[in-house]
């Protein structure tokens, strides 16, 4: 199941909830709850149904379910007092109510973008769409890396079509791809290690489901 709603996209195959191409953090049970509500939209899914699916053969109190809903709303930036996406049916259950929720066929997505690019470091990861991503210690950087060894605007990663490259922005400690310090734009391949200061980020380029194009 792949469903777009507003600026969000839920993909049950990759188990990702993305906002404008950037993966959001959700615990596995919170993701399963959101996917279940979307799959049953616009029907109200009762608490009993949700508890049976999420905690089979276990007894849990309603608070566990409410905590998962709060986690989802936080990820979606939703105000519980004025919900736009997850509606609470008091004492009954919950429903997905976003008007723009629509299924997006996976084969169409694969034709549009045969590769999926990701950047991973520490316990973080983001999905990269076409465009430029400044890597740096500046809180406004597209890829914020909190390390004194990293310059405020350290490097820029560019996605163009099915190609990706990285370029140093005159940083103090340099940018490396593998063991090689780069002084100009450098093409990236799946699995490349990008070192900015003392921090290593891993670049991934994977084939989108349904595509036969090699990721290199």
TrEMBL record:
CDD domains named in the record: FHA (cd00060), trans_reg_C (cd00383)
DNA-binding region: 1-98
Protein name as annotated: Glycogen accumulation regulator GarA
Gene3D superfamilies: 2.60.200.20, Winged helix-like DNA-binding domain superfamily/Winged helix DNA-binding domain (1.10.10.10)
DNA-binding among keywords: yes
Single Gene Ontology BP annotation: regulation of DNA-templated transcription
UniProt domain OmpR/PhoB-type: residue ranges: 1-98
């Amino acid at each position: 199941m792949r469903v777009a709603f507003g600026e969000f996209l839920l993909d049950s195959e990759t188990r990702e909830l993305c906002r404008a191409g950037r993966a959001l953090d959700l615990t596995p049970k919170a993701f399963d709850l959101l996917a279940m509500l979307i799959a049953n939209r616009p029907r109200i899914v009762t608490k009993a149904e949700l508890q049976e699916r999420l905690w089979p053969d276990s007894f849990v109190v309603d608070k566990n379910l409410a905590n998962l809903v709060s986690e989802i709303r936080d990820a979606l930036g939703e105000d519980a007092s004025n919900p736009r996406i997850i509606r609470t049916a008091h004492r009954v259950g919950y429903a997905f109510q976003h008007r723009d929720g629509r299924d997006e066929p996976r084969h169409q997505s694969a034709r549009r973008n045969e590769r999926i690019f990701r950047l991973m470091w520490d316990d973080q990861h983001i999905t990269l769409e076409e465009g430029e991503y400044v890597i740096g210690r500046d809180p406004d950087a597209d890829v914020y890396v909190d390390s004194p060894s990293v310059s405020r605007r350290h490097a820029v990663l560019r996605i163009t079509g099915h190609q990706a490259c990285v370029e140093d922005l005159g940083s103090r400690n340099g940018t490396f791809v593998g063991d090689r310090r780069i002084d100009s734009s450098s093409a990236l391949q799946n699995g490349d290690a990008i070192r900015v200061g003392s921090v290593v980020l891993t670049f991934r380029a994977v084939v989108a489901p349904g595509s036969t194009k090699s990721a290199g």
